[in-house]
Design brief:
By secondary structure, the protein is α+β, with helices and mostly antiparallel strands. The chain contains two helices and nine strands, in the order E-E-E-H-E-E-E-H-E-E-E. It has one domain. Helix content is 23%, strand content 31%. This is Acetolactate synthase.
Amino acid sequence: MIRPIRHRTAQANSTARATPEGGARRWRVRGCAIGLMLSVLSTSGFAQTSALLPVPSGQPVELSDVLLDNNPGELWLRFRFIAPKIGASIGRIGYDVASTDMEHLCQTLVVAYVAQHQLEPARVVVSLSDRPIEFGDAAPDATQFFEAYRLEQSRCIWEGL
């Protein structure tokens, strides 16, 4: 369930919490993040007319949410993307290819976003989902891939969690 406030808070209603106590805050995703994303892409030579992001696999990827999550004592940023072609079945994009796309999104979008908003996250989580899913909701039929990174000197360093 998402409680609306100035910065919306995402909190799961289950015994295994998706976020720590206090939840995650949405960070003006609809206007600010997509505008920043498009301006970052434009200045990087990726002129876009829609919110689809270029990734190495060529699959359609769209930013869904940016969440600020205050774990005990540290800030985690969660960048959630919709990638409808991911999955394990034949003809779908598997984790091996999608992980390259997630690293690319981290390096090209997340690094610029963090710099633009002067944030200092302990970790960044980039996730791909084959369909929109409300943060914290269970969706057993959905395919989701996750990667965690730490940022060092404007670079995404993979964190195997």
